[in-house]
Amino acid sequence: MKNQMxxxxxxxxxxxxxxxxxxxxxxxxxxxxxxxxxxxxxxxTCFKPGDLLEVPRTLFIHFGIYLGDNMVAHLMPDILPAFTxxxxxxxxxxxxxxxxxxxxxxxxxxxxxxxxxxxxxGCILVNHMDVHFKNKVLGGDxxxxxxxKLVGTTDYSLLWNNCEHFVTYxxxxxxxxxxxxxxxxxxxxxIRDQRSVLASVLLGLASIFYLGLAPSTTLPTIIIPFTLxxxx
Length: 232
Fold this sequence. Notes:
Elements: H1 2-18, H2 30-39, E1 52-56, E2 61-68, E3 71-77, H3 87-90, H4 96-105, E4 107-114, H5 115-119, E5 125-126, H6 140-150, E6 152-155, H7 163-172, H8 178-192, H9 195-211, H10 215-231
Antiparallel strand pairs: 1-2, 1-5, 2-3, 3-4, 4-6
């Protein structure tokens, strides 16, 4: 149980700080990542219009819909559409800064990129989610039509409207996110574990000790443990 709790807390914190579909901090230099991207080639003859493409990342899976002709529609958080309508600027590869600010501002864009830019050096899995939606897979033309209609700026929510919701709506008719469900289960497991109450009390007492006795430190020390105790 201790190891499970540790893993759950670690995963929760990592998801909180990483936030979205890509790592927020680059591992190594950008030049190294670009070199890795350039080394990978994809056999697009294996893809059919309407296929659901998955690119596993360190902690997340990024999703897209293959439109044909080496192009993929996918949803990405992006702050830039809030400041400009210049398609040439918006269509440039989304930087980590744009992505983070998009998550915070809850702004995203369903964009169309080539397979290389979509996958960015990662391996691509095809239609692996079909097993969860037996007899619900829509025809390829219908999937592509749905994806193209949604291209453009949209609201973003890490829990309610992310790239997985987009692709499952297009291919299966309803937007769901298994990653979100797993994340929520981890949160519930942490809340239900009574050690979270003890941890919140200790953190509250530590904040009072270092920052002094004040409403900003005392109230959270009382309210947070009490709330965790009641809902646990």
